[in-house]
Amino acid sequence: MISRRDVFVAVVAMGVALSARAGVDEAGKLIGASVYDWNSIAARKTDVGEVRSFFRGPTATLAELEVHVTTLNPGKESHPPHKHPNEEMIIVREGTVECLVAGEWKRVGAGSVIFSASNVLHGIRSVGDGPATYHVINFRTEKTPKE
């Protein structure tokens, strides 16, 4: 038989749990369903081209999701080959790039998708006559190794 005390304890526990969840959502500022208009995201000039930063933060299922778009001038690279614990996906929007994958430079163009696995050396450079623009999607989960 369930007592009034049991019901009271259950109600208080539910309230605490819901409050804690709301606090996590507020403190973590979870990214929810959203639209980001290309024309409303300012391009920031860099030494090698420009970058548009769309968003970065936790989602309901990812510890972190970050999206930006890089434009590299011809003959430029964003930075030397590197590695990091998070996984990364690049979608080439325009131009021609070479990407370092599994120790080999591979040439790809618009519409190509590049996946960089956790802690694997990778890089990208613009090798066409014009600029290369690509979307970068970085994501971390609880399984992502620590830095």
- Provide the residue-averaged pLDDT: 87
Please state how the strands of the largest beta sheet are arranged side by side. Answer: 1-2-3-9-4-7
Low-confidence stretches: 5-26
Share of helix among residues?
10-25%
- CATH fold-level assignment of the largest domain: Jelly Rolls
How much β-strand is present in the residues?
35-45%
Global structural class = alpha+beta
CATH homologous superfamily annotation of the largest domain: Jelly Rolls
Provide the succession of SSEs: HEEEEEEEEE
| Distance between the first and last residues' Cα | 52 Å
In the residues, how many domains can be counted? Answer: 2
What can be said about this structure in brief?
The protein is α+β, with helices and mostly antiparallel strands and 147 residues long. It has one helix at residues 4-28, and strands at residues 44-45, 49-57, 64-72, 87-94, 96-101, 104-109, 113-116, 123-126, 132-140. It has 2 domains: 1-30; 38-140, Jelly Rolls.
